[in-house]
Amino acid sequence: MSKMMARPTRTGLTKALVFIGLILGALFAGLPVLWMFASSFKSNTEIFAYPPRLVDSSFSFTAYTTVLGDPQQRRFFFNSYLISGLVTLFTLIVGTLAGYSFSRYDFKFKRFLNLVIIGVQSVPPITLMIPYFGLIVWLQLYNSYGALILTYMVFTLPYAIIMMTGYFNTLPRELDEAVMIDGGSSFVVLWKILVPISLPGIVSVGVYTFMLAWNEFLFALTLTKTNDMRTVPIGIQLLMGQHSFEWNQMLAMSVLGSLPVLILFLVSQRYFIAGMAAGSIKG
Amino acid sequence: MKKWLVGILMIAILLISGNVMMAQDPITLEFAQWWEPELPAGEFRALMDAFEAQNPGIKVELVSGPYSTTKDQIVAGAATGTMSDVVGLDGAWVSDFVKQGALASLTDLMGAVSYDASELAAQIQLNGATYMIPVVNFIYPVFVNLDLLAAAGIENPPATRSEFVDAATKLTDAANNVYGWVLPLSMEQPNGIQNDVMSWVWATGGSMMKDGMPNLVDNADVSSAMEFIKGMYDAGVIAPGAFSMREQDKVEEFTNGRVGMMVDSLAHINLIRERNPELKFAITALPAADGYEGPRGLPYASWGIGVAENSEHKAEAWKLVEFLMSAETNSKLSSIANAFPGNVKATPDFVQTDELFAAAFDVFQKGFLANEFVGLPVAENLMREFDEPFQLYLDGGMELSEFLSAAQDAWTGHF
Amino acid sequence: MAKISISNETQNLTWQRMKRQAVPFAYLSPTLLLLAVLSFIPIATVVYYSLMNNVIITKDPPSFVGLDNYVKILSDKNFFNALGNTLFFAIASVIAHFVLGLLFAMLLNSKVVGPVTKSLFRVIYILPWVFTASIIAVLWRLLLYPNGVVNYFMLGAGFSTEPIEWLSSRQLALPTVTFINIWSGYPFYMVSFLAGLQGISEDLYEAGKIDGASGIQLFRFITLPQLKPVIISLAMLDFIWTTHQFTLIWMTTGGGPVRATEMLSTFTYKLAFTSYEFSLASTTAMLILALSLFVGVFYVRNQRSANE
Questions:
Q1: Partner of B4 at 20 to 30 A CA spacing, among A104, B121, B228, B335?
Q2: Which residues of C touch B397 (CB under 8 A)?
Q3: Every domain of chain B and the residues it spans
Q4: C259–B381: do the CB atoms touch at under 8 Å?
Q5: Nearest residue on chain A to B73, judged by CA atoms?
Q6: pLDDT tops 50 at residue A5
Q7: Burial class, B273, CB count within 10 angstroms (exposed 0-12 / middle 13-18 / buried 19+)
Q8: What is the pLDDT of residue A40?
Q9: ipTM of this predicted complex?
């Protein structure tokens, strides 16, 4: 679009078109979410009322106070924060180390390992459920944070490695050599030089990893047993009863659940946008 | 340096996971069920506390999950040896778990303590042994919206199929978005086949089985019920969206006053009152075919209970079952769950105090519990395999005979 | 680091070579350990199941049946119905994700919009991405309900005379679930493209303009080729992920009406958890894996050429 700015006569038209496009897109993306937000303040009956209204007489914060007032639900939020946070941290550390290796070294089986790491995400999770569950029990990790953290890392690492490899590839090797000549080890190169420069890329991978871990349901349910180990998506599912759903609480909970992700995105936007660029272009 | 870091991470993960492995002195029974989240907060735990007080040395740990995934979790638990000692069951699952060898014979456990089973309203048996006991039952009568009925000029709730069709037709006012009946046929939760479709066959004393085998083809009871539903579908008196509707959606339609009648679980009485206090409604038995005078089969769903075959504490597990089935506990559980008790001597207090439940209890006593899917192999799959050609039949893609033989063929393969 | 003995020079050299060889593996070791334990064992188990009979839900011992399960699945017309639906669902999703993602990224990248406005729009555009699949299913069921708000507007605006059964009609259900998946998945592309656009040098456009290129030509000959590595990577990843999509389908239609939205994922789930045919479910899993790997090979090739 920017290239059309050359001719001033067309600028006004371009601007109008861009704004119309932006608003239409925002309606497409935002209206369903706005409806969710509005419905979370309605009574369960009013959610199904016809004709539907965005805001009605049943408006109240009950759903939110119920969710936030329940210690079990708060525990779900705590668990989700803890697990997603740790998964993000560990994925970044392990993924950075692996990305460094793929980017800076030539070694036997490199292509093969690359293929394998990419291939790991090609297996439909649902079919792995039972054998995977058996393995977690055998490892004595059943019903622990460790089980979920390690599991999510299996899903997030391939993506993180691809991105980090691509990002490191954009940084010139002369940087490394300068440090090596001064007697620094390869780890010093990584930690003191590459990591600080590629911080934007690391943040972008981190946000995506956090989102994957925050929203996962199937394994979170299967690999845990007690409610003190469970996460927000299960809390939402628990509101879907055998005979009836607590619609407004479900919606309120997902609105609350989306806030940290949105805040994280807002805060890291500057990094995210720039970071994705270098990583994905080469990745 | 890097190895240090990784080492620390691994230790951290192990420490976090370590807390599960702590040894406990008293025997701990795990009780996996979906009931706790369905009941008012804390009520079910209070019952367990009462059990623990009566049985020092036994602790009960409730493992609660969402209903929709309970069955999958039990399958996965049985496959990996992590199944809880005591499990909540639905009648539709029993046969498969028995086949898997996951459930212990309750007949043996009862025999070991010479339990007097005469108070049990029902036992679900396979190959001559009991594997599940229904703790409480939710029957499925017809709910009618009294205001809509009055507005349509109908004085009494329908008692026969032709009265039902007549009422549904009069109630339907598509321009104002009101329909006579609502039919949930979701493929995700195909239990509408059991509660809202096959129930018409049972209410007239019919059966979908013969000598333990599916009997859908050339079965007058089945065909007439299917034609009855098809007639209403074609007449446009069934609320739209049937093919993806679930039980939880059905009740919202009724609560909002958009359908005049629905076949539904008693569990919904309080929910409807709470969500729409102004709605006037009544309960009546499922209408039978015209001229049928015999007792009416009532579809029902149970919260059943079973004991895991791999449990190390079967005797203690049985104590918990016995506790839940005792007249006193069973009355209490029925009261908080708004269900009918699984112990014949138990009387939930709402039967005396609540007019609607009293009416339902009357329906319950005049009829008999009928749910032929209980105890059948891959029961949920059977419902789905019936649902598919049934949707085609309603939609005009299949003739009645094609539909019934397609369903029968699919079913026969599992027996 | 470790102290090196200087007394034996040859030994020292060998040691150093070995060390150099070992370093990349040391950096990879946590990844390899994790994937080896948590990925290969379960995958190998699924392969094993697919060649056996009587696994998991049975008291009988498993028996080896060779490729019988594969023959059984590949002669099941329902499998091909599910495969066809999955391909439609995945390909339509990938194309629409790409088009919407690129369009929105270009709009958000436009210089005529101020940074604060951009920031606001960026957050709105990202919204469909931040919810878990079961809630997306619940939300869209509410919206598309016969008495839902979408039908209310369709009726009100005169597009239809009776409520449209978006999810309950055999004709509309598949396009509808595809649409929901498109809605919930495009931000992944959008964010990546946004980043990609940031990375294209202004000089390229300036040079293009000097050569008299039109806006469309600039887009076609500069923007698209510059984004190509991102496009291919995203499309391949997205195709694989969409093929695995289960929760969204299951919780909106359950694969129905009839089999209109049956996907490979729901087909496999039903085999495993309602028919208890774990061998057959594992076989289907292997076929899905083969399909994904087929696409994955293109992906890896592209990765390689992009890196070189």
A1: A104
A2: 170, 258
A3: 24-137+301-363, 142-298+377-412
A4: no
A5: A222
A6: no
A7: middle
A8: 94
A9: 0.85
